[in-house]
Amino acid sequence: MSGFATSLNTWLLRVARVAFWMAFLVVLAGSVVRMTGSGMGCPDWPKCFGLMVPPTEASQVTWQEGETYEAGRMLVAHDQLWVAQRDLTAEDFLLEQARGDWQPYTKHDYAVFNPVHTWVEFINRLLGALAGLPALLLFVLAALARDMKTWLLSLLALVALGFVAWLGKLVVDGNLIPHSITIHMLGALAILCVDSVIVQRLRGLTVRWHRSARWALALALLVTLGQILTGTEVRELVDALLKDGLGRPDLAASLADNYLLYLIHRSGYWVVLGAHAFWMLRMGPFGQRHVLRARNLVAALLVAQLITGLLFAYGAFPAWAQPIHLLMGLGVFLASWGLFWRTTSR
C-alpha cells in the first residue's frame, strides 16, 4: 500500500470517529432538549422565529413601533404566532393585520417565548448541522480511497442524517406530535450504528467467537433495542403527564397504576441484564484487550442503568437522570453493536 493510501485510510478512520462522536453529541443535546422541555423553543424550522440567530429577549418577538421587520419574521401577539408577509417598518399592528402584512402561523398553535428553551433548541440544531460536516467529509474521503463498502455506508449515514433533519422539521411543525419523537430517536440511533460499523471496518480488529456466543450477543442487541423503544415511548407518557400537571414525585406510581407499557419497560431491564450476562458467560473470562474493554463497558453501563431506573422509581423521577438513563441505554446498545461487528463465528 502506498504512503498516500495509508495516509488516506488513517484519515478515514479519524473522520469516521469524529462523525460517530458528533452524532452521539447530537443525541446528548436532544436528550437535554427533552429534559428541559425545549423542543418548541424555536417554533419554526430551520430558522428560529424567522431569524438565523435566535432572539434573546421578549422585545425581539413582540411588536415594536418603528422596528423594521423582514418577510418571514415571527412575533408573539394575542397568544398566537404571526408571520411578516413582507418587509415593513412597524406603525400600527392592527392596521398591518387588516391589510395582510401579518398572517397567523397555522402549522401549530404553540406561541410561547422562553429564551432558555430557544437557545437550548438552537444549540441542538446547530450541533445537528455540524454533525453533517464530518459525515460529508467521510463520504468524499471514501470515494478518494476507492473503498466502495465504506463509501456506501457513508452514503447511508448521510441519507439517514438528512432523514433525521427532515423529521426534526415535522416534529416542530406538529408541535411534538406523539411517536414522531420515537421515530426521530430511531433515526439518530441508525446513524450511530452505521458510523460504528464504518469505524470497526476501518480499525480491522476482529476476533473469532464460538457461534453460540455471537448469537447470544445478537439476541442481547435485539432485546436492548426493544428496551430503548419502550423507554422512548414511556418518556412520551412522562412528558404528557407532566404537561397535564402531575408532579414528578407522583410519576412512578401513576405510570405503574395506569400504563402497562411502563411495567413492561421496568421489568424489561432484567431481561436485558440476563441477555447480556448470557453472552458474557458464553464468551468466557479471557479475550483480546479491546473485547474485554467492551464487555466491561457494557457491564458498567448496565449498572448505571439500574441506578437511574431506581431513581425514577424511588427518587421522585429527577429530570437530570432522564438524559443519563437514555445515554446509558444507548451506550449499552452501541458498545454491544460495535463488539458484534468485531467478531466472526467459528
End-to-end distance, in Å? 30 Å
Number of domains: 2
Please, what is the average pLDDT?
89
Largest sheet: 3 strands, antiparallel
Backbone shape: flat
DSSP helix fraction: 55-70%
> Low-confidence spans: pLDDT under 50, at least 5 residues?
none
Strand content: 5-15%
Elements, N to C (H/E): HEEEEHEHHHEHHHHHE
How many helix segments? 10
Q: How are strands sequenced across the largest beta sheet?
A: 2-3-5
| Secondary structure tally: strands | 7
Structural class: mainly alpha
**Any idea what the radius of gyration is?**
24 Å
SSE blueprint and pairings:
Blueprint: H1 3-36, E1 68-69, E2 74-77, E3 80-84, E4 88-89, H2 93-98, E5 102-104, H3 115-144, H4 148-173, H5 180-203, E6 207-209, H6 211-243, H7 251-258, H8 260-283, H9 289-314, H10 321-340, E7 343-345
Attribute tags:
346 residues; mainly alpha; Seminal Fluid Protein  PDC-109 (Domain B); 2 domains; three-stranded antiparallel β-sheet; two-stranded antiparallel sheet
Structure in a nutshell:
Helix content is 67%, strand content 6%. With 346 residues, it is mainly alpha-helical. It folds into 2 domains: 272 residues, no CATH class; 71 residues, Carbohydrate-binding module superfamily 5/12 (Seminal Fluid Protein  PDC-109 (Domain B)).
Structure, explained:
There is one protein chain. The protein has two domains: 3-41 and 113-345, no CATH class; 42-112, Seminal Fluid Protein  PDC-109 (Domain B), CATH 2.10.10.20. The model has no long low-confidence stretch (mean pLDDT 89). By secondary structure, the chain is mainly alpha-helical. Helix content is 67%, strand content 6%. α8 (260-283) packs antiparallel against α9 (289-314). It has helices at 3-36, 93-98, 115-144, 148-173, 180-203, 211-243, 251-258, 260-283, 289-314, 321-340; strands spanning 68-69, 74-77, 80-84, 88-89, 102-104, 207-209, 343-345. A three-stranded antiparallel β-sheet has the order 2-3-5. The chain has a two-stranded antiparallel ribbon with strand order 1-4. The protein has ten helices and seven strands. 33% of the residues are buried. The two termini are 30 Å apart.
